[in-house]
């Protein structure tokens, strides 16, 4: 089968979060099964762009409303990522340093989608499936079905994967002019609550919708930032498929970011060396358990609770553990975490920013990884941490519920709690501090986690089943 993934992110080209990890891995594993999966994404000004060689494969002119512009599609020459990678270059619009966060993001991603479909229209053999990811590419299912310009693509099946339904790409109806001429009777397929809602539109128009875990799909029916009735209505075409992790990239024995590699046989020594690096770099106490947080400092991830949880833990449990936080996000949360720094007695530190290398060292060197998420569609961090023998401390929600079993339950290995609340999370910290001193149990849990299979091989087969049901 021929599949074209259309995405705003793809690791290692450009990554702002988990979407990048998934799109950087899924096509590679599809190709290993004998399919042809390709990726097209915007051409940002990234390190990867300048460090690799590119061939121009298509050049054309198009329009978005009254604005005419040129675009170029370039292809990475060697297919080194395990799939063909194409970038869309629109001068001045897409070629920025960051993936998101600009006031014209709606125009940027609409233009990107128009270029992709214009380009696809010129292909002699169309793909069997266009697989779009999240709202940035959510207008494509509508455009393929209802834009006159793309009539030649109307037989191509579309699949939407929802990595995060909190963000929906809302645009006022005054922007409808941006979408190439479309059948006005179909305005309802773009609309949700009087705005153009690209995510809602994709849920309505895609032939199949997947979410990144089964539990997240259940939750979306009662908690999806306004789309609850739509998920209930469209449930027949939705399926939850748990993400995998790319075990070529995330392998403690080969990880290119790690100074000290280790396999399951030498996990205690390997983890200790990585922990020592972190303790040296961040002035932490090696003898105490090291609890970390890695991720976007936003409400969804429960990051706003961190300052209070950390100070309450020191107050009520005692200075029996270290905390290390890596992330960026809401300025108030960043400020709250930075404000705790002077209170550290060699047991707390924070790195505000994005740092891929540090995140890998943390997965390896931490004893525990805290994830008090309010919403977690799948969560990759808990799977990375388990692969590196680090115990996840997760709230039972979405993909966290599907992947972590409390160590108090039969065959369990993680620390689970029910609420994103200061008492629940602080209690989990206490349980971590206690578990740390039961060395035999901790070692057993670490070994058990490192043997768990979260590879893409299983998940990819579910995606292929979804495609196969569409392409007869
Ligand atoms: N400051 C920082 N420095 C270095 N690395 C950092 C970092 N902040 C985050 N990361 C990295 O970004 C990735 C985050 O992955 P998640 O799955 O937690 O997040 P995200 O919410 O972005 O993804 C959404 O999509 C994914 C993929 O489907 C779902 O798993 C998830 O639940 C959903 O919210 C991890 O690789 C993590 O290490």
Explain this structure to me?
By secondary structure, the protein is an alpha/beta fold. The protein has 2 domains: 257 residues, Glycogen Phosphorylase B (Rossmann fold); 190 residues, Glycogen Phosphorylase B (Rossmann fold), CATH 3.40.50.2000. 36% of the residues lie in helices and 20% in strands. It contains 16 helices and 17 strands. The strands form 3 sheets. Strands 3-4-5-2-1-6-7-10-11 form a 9-stranded mixed beta sheet, with helices on both faces. A 6-stranded parallel beta sheet has the order 14-13-12-15-16-17, with helices on both faces. It has a two-stranded antiparallel ribbon with strand order 8-9. Strand 3 and strand 4 form a beta hairpin. The radius of gyration is 23 Å and the shape is globular. The model has no long low-confidence stretch (mean pLDDT 97). Adenosine-5'-diphosphate-glucose binds next to helix 1, strand 12, strand 13 and helix 11. Its EC number is 2.4.1.21. Keywords: Glycogen biosynthesis, Glycosyltransferase, Transferase. It comes from Niastella populi. InterPro entries: Glyco_trans_1, GS/SS, Starch_synth_cat_dom.
Name the average pLDDT: 97
Shape: globular
Characterize the largest beta sheet: strand count, sense, and whether it forms a barrel: 9 strands, mixed
- Within the CATH hierarchy, at the fold level, what is the topology of the largest domain? Rossmann fold
Question: What is the CATH architecture annotation of the largest domain?
Answer: 3-Layer(aba) Sandwich
Instruction: Tell me the number of strands.
Output: 17
Q: Tell me, what is the CATH class of the largest domain?
A: Alpha Beta
Strand order of the largest sheet: 3-4-5-2-1-6-7-10-11
User: What's the CATH H-level superfamily name of the largest domain?
Assistant: Glycogen Phosphorylase B
Secondary-structure-derived class: alpha/beta
> Roughly how much helix do the residues carry, as a percent range?
25-40%
**Overall tally of structural domains:** 2
Q: How far apart, in Å, are the first and last alpha carbons? A: 11 Å
Strand content: 15-25%
- Give me the number of helical elements: 16
As a whole number of angstroms, the C-alpha radius of gyration is 23 Å
Low-pLDDT windows of residues: none
Chain oligomer state: single chain
Attached small molecules:
adenosine-5'-diphosphate-glucose
């Amino acid at each position: 089968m021929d599949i074209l993934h259309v995405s705003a992110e793809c690791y290692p080209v450009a990554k702002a979060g988990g979407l990048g990890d998934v799109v950087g891995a899924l096509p590679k594993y599809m190709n290993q099964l004998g399919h042809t999966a390709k990726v097209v994404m915007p051409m940002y000004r990234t390190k990867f762009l300048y460090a690799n060689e590119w061939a121009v494969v298509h050049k054309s002119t198009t329009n978005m409303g009254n604005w005419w512009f040129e675009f170029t599609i370039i292809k990475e020459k060697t297919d080194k990522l395990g799939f063909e990678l194409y970038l869309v270059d629109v001068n001045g619009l897409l070629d920025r340093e960051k993936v998101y966060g600009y006031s014209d993001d709606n125009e940027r991603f609409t233009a990107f989608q128009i270029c992709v479909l214009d380009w696809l229209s010129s292909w002699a053999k169309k793909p069997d499936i266009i697989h779009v990811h999240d709202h940035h590419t959510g207008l494509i299912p509508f455009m393929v079905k209802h834009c006159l310009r793309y009539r030649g693509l109307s037989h191509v099946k579309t699949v939407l994967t929802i990595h995060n339904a909190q963000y929906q790409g809302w645009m006022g109806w005054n922007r409808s002019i941006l979408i190439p001429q479309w059948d006005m009777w179909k305005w309802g397929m773009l609309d949700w609550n009087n705005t153009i809602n690209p995510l809602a539109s994709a849920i309505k128009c895609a032939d199949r919708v997947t979410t990144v875990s089964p539990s997240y799909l259940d939750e979306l029916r009662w908690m999806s930032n306004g789309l609850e009735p739509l998920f209930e209505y469209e449930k027949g075409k939705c399926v939850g498929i748990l993400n995998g992790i790319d075990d070529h990239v995330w392998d403690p024995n080969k990880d290119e970011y790690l100074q000290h590699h280790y396999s399951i046989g030498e996990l205690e020594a390997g983890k200790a060396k990585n922990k020592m690096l972190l303790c040296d770099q961040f002035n932490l106490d090696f003898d105490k358990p090291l609890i970390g947080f890695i991720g976007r400092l936003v409400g969804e991830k429960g990051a706003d609770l961190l300052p209070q949880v950390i100070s309450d833990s020191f107050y009520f449990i005692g200075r029996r553990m270290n905390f290390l936080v890596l992330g960026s996000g809401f300025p108030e949360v960043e400020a709250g975490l930075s404000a705790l720094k002077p209170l550290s007695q060699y047991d707390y530190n924070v790195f505000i920013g994005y740092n891929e290398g540090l995140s890998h060292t943390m997965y390896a060197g931490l004893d525990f990884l805290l994830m008090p998420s309010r919403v977690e569609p799948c969560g990759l961090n808990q799977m990375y941490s388990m692969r590196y023998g680090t115990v996840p401390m997760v709230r039972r929600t979405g993909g966290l519920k599907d992947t972590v079993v409390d160590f108090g339950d039969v065959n369990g290995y993680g620390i689970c709690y029910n609420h994103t609340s200061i008492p629940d999370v602080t209690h989990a910290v206490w349980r971590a501090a206690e578990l740390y001193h039961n060395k035999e149990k901790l070692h057993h849990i670490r070994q058990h986690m490192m043997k768990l299979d979260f590879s893409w091989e299983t998940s990819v087969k579910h995606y292929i089943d979804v495609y196969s049901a569409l392409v007869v």
